[in-house]
Design brief:
mainly alpha
Length: 87
C-alpha cells in the first residue's frame, strides 16, 4: 500500500505551505493591497539599473530556492520509492 507514503508527503507539503504563508503574513507581503493594482501603471522607478540587494533578501532567495529543490527531491524520492515497491 502506498497510502502512508502519500499521506506523509501531503502532510509535509501542507506544513511547508503553512510555514511559508505565516512567513508572508509576518513579513508584510499582503500589506497595502490597494497599491498593487496601480503597479503596472507606474513609471519605471528603477531606470538607473538594478538596485543593490540586501543580505536578507539574498538569504530569503537562497532559502526559497533550497525549499523548492528539496520539494522536487522529495517528489522524486516518493515517485521512485513507490515505483520500486511495486510487487
Amino acid at each position: 500500500m502506498y497510502f502512508p507514503y502519500f499521506i506523509a508527503y501531503m502532510t509535509a507539503g501542507f506544513v511547508v505551505s503553512l510555514v511559508v504563508f505565516i512567513w508572508a503574513l509576518r513579513s508584510g507581503q499582503f500589506r497595502d493591497q490597494q497599491r498593487a493594482r496601480y503597479l503596472p501603471l507606474e513609471e519605471d522607478a528603477h531606470s538607473g539599473g538594478p538596485g543593490r540587494v540586501s543580505r536578507m533578501n539574498r538569504l530569503e532567495a537562497y532559502a526559497l530556492a533550497g525549499l523548492a529543490c528539496s520539494g522536487l527531491l522529495a517528489s522524486g524520492a516518493v515517485l521512485i520509492f513507490s515505483l520500486l515497491r511495486v510487487p
